[in-house]
Amino acid sequence: MSASADTIYALSSGALPAGVAVIRISGPGALVAVTALTGRQAPPPRRAVLNSIRNRNNEIIDQALVMVFPSPNSFTGEDCVEIHSHGSRAVLASIFAELESLDGFRPADAGEFSRRAFGNGKMDLLEIEGLADLLQAETEMQRRLAVEQSTGKLSALYDGWASRLTRARALIEAELDFADEDDVPDSVASQVWEAMAQLRQEISAHLHDGGNSEIIRDGFKVALVGEPNAGKSTLLNALSGRDVAIVTDIAGTTRDVLSVDINLEGYLVRIFDTAGIRETQDVVEQEGVRRARLTAENADLVLLLQDNDSSPKQSSVSFEHSRRLYIRTKAALSFGSVKNGFDLSISAKEGQGLDGLRGLIKQEIENRVGGGLTLVPARARHKKRLEETLNYVSDALDSEAMDLAIRSEYLRLAATSLGRITGRVDVEDLLGVIFSEFCIGK
Known about the structure:
The chain is α/β, with parallel strands linked by helices.
């Protein structure tokens, strides 16, 4: 039996135990499952009906709400059933045992409901990826970015561009094949290339606006860097609000890179505590220093920390190619104005200056991502295909000396690259990767 002929089921709500558990069933046998579990015919579509869920011996397992979503008006496009039962492990185990005994039923794989929705044309790849991001969203900005995708707004933008490319190719074909016919518009070439120049400008602006949108989705990386005992671990603990790193007066306590995620006014910020940078003969500490430098090089922002009760011991703490802020730590020992080239003075242990530091980090994020999130590409895959599309449109515009058929081929390649974002063409190799991100039951 092929996967498409199977009826699948899974828990679609949160971890057990819970007040309510939602069991989702999808496939040709979904309505059969209702009769098997309740002893009654399926209720009217999209109406919640209270039923007794029974086993094969007609013993009551639980009282549950049952809802039916007939094909094609369901999430997957197939017949779907939702059972809202009490969320105990025993109840779920008993219901699953009954479903497993039915012919052609099996547990769903991760993301299989969404994959069936894609296969039945209920959602495109952009909407599927947006849904995956929405399920995993931890901050307000991540939620907003995911909603833009999952609601189909971004798909509509790309589909509009694809339609314009199709129209341009159609006009070129008309000029090539029916140049002597009266119903072919005059000056077709000028219309096409003016439209394509405008499209190139729009795609370029779209890529520019979304150039740093991955920061929203994956987090803004901040590396705490400095000499030993500069207060990096204390600052990490203060920003996270808990004891993540061990803090002692012994120089070199931190040997590896530690990280913690914080929600900074809707933005996900990943803060990395690194080993103190200094010359050392200790092999383990040398590796820690190497990792500290690598972390700083890959960070979106480096906070260079220097304590207030000592002068710099090394001149090697510098990252000329990184965006960085100079932070004076342990300022409570002599709290005053920022001076000597520092951007801010703080005292993490006493909580002084932390609000100012959070404000500087937020300002850095907004400088990178801009003020709005409306319709921007969220993943590297999207950006790569958009860059391909832009390059092909540019090739078509810049090849005035070439045959019109060749320029039309560039536009076809542009449309193909654009179609691969939404899954309109040639994306089978992407499906396994995308749907593997989903949890069971979605």
